[in-house]
Design goal:
By secondary structure, the protein is an alpha+beta fold. The chain folds into two domains: 20-86, Orthogonal Bundle (Arc Repressor Mutant, subunit A), CATH 1.10.10.10; 92-258, Beta-Lactamase (2-Layer Sandwich), CATH 3.30.450. Helix content is 41%, strand content 17%. It has helices at 20-31, 40-47, 51-63, 79-91, 93-109, 152-161, 165-172, 188-201, 244-249, 251-258; strands spanning 67-69, 75-77, 112-119, 122-129, 145-147, 204-207, 214-221, 231-238. The chain has a six-stranded antiparallel sheet with strand order 5-4-3-8-7-6, with helices on both faces. A two-stranded antiparallel ribbon has the order 1-2. A hairpin with a 2-residue loop joins β3 (112-119) and β4. The longest helix is centred in the middle third of the chain and has 17 residues, at 93-109. The two termini are 29 Å apart.
């Protein structure tokens, strides 16, 4: 997996047309990029907005407990925001239902397991479990994004969503598909060919397409419906430690785990 972002686009100026709550929320989103805190001057420069404008937004967020200041006077997300976010995440049915699957995959293969859903041109990670020993240094985080066409989870879900070339072309639209590595598909026709192969196989792979040295295998998971996937589950592995072919060879066991038919005791 490649380094993930909090939002699926680059930092941009806060739109001067935004007013009131919209402007405050835009500042909140950008504030989330600074887990170690950010000064008023730095944040104003980052969002290309006047300091008084940013200060007013931060003051409103602080009053609500959604932002706060550390001992150095730097702004960061507030405890109330974190309580809301983590409480919501913990209560989500898909998070609770997928946890045993991710735990078992991470323990069995000694690699990182993810659960992700499709969101526009990206996938967003809902859950992540690292192995107890030998965890690789991935920057994927719960709530983080990666380009869907460059990831195994993304291609798995796109294969079920985009049945033909016309649908792929419509999904791509006028965007230029980013290429995190030389292995990443770069146009609609290449992506369509990969998605056809995913549908034929019933699983998807990521062969160092999102980050050099990392491969991945993904399957859809049906947590709330027998016919509509709630998302996709993947095993992300260091290529030199767990070659992609090893995961493919063990696909029957992986499938049984994802389907809930293979437990830790078996």
């Amino acid at each position: 997996m490649h380094a993930t972002q909090l939002v699926p686009h680059e930092t941009v100026a806060v739109d001067d047309r935004l007013v009131g709550a919209d402007r405050v929320l835009a500042i909140l989103i950008d504030l989330a990029r600074y887990p170690e805190g950010v000064s008023l001057d730095e944040l104003a420069r980052a969002v290309w907005s006047p300091k008084p404008t940013v200060h007013r937004a931060l003051a409103a967020l602080c009053r609500a407990g959604l932002a706060g200041k550390d001992g150095r006077g730097r702004y960061l997300l507030g405890d109330q925001f974190l309580r809301i976010a983590f409480t919501n995440h913990e209560l989500r049915p898909d998070h609770l239902r997928v946890q045993p699957t991710l735990d078992l995959l991470a323990e069995r293969y000694g690699e990182t397991a993810h659960y992700a859903v499709l969101e526009g041109p990206s996938v967003v990670y809902r859950s992540k479990v690292d192995p107890v020993i030998g965890a690789m240094r991935l920057t994927s985080t719960i709530g983080g994004y990666n380009p869907a066409h460059a990831t195994a989870v993304g291609k798995m879900l796109l294969a079920l969503k985009l049945p033909d070339l016309a649908a792929v072309e419509e999904w791509v639209g006028g965007r230029v598909l980013v290429k995190p590595t030389a292995n990443t598909v770069g146009n609609s026709h290449q992506l369509h060919q990969q998605l056809e192969l995913v549908r034929e196989r019933g699983y998807s792979v990521e062969d160092q397409e999102n980050e050099p040295g990392v491969n991945c295998l993904a399957l859809p998971i049906y947590l709330t419906s027998p016919t509509i996937p709630s998302g996709a589950v993947s095993i992300s592995a260091l290529a030199h430690r767990t070659p992609l072919q090893d995961l493919i060879d063990d696909l029957p066991s992986i499938r049984l785990i994802v389907e809930g038919k293979l437990t830790k005791e078996q």
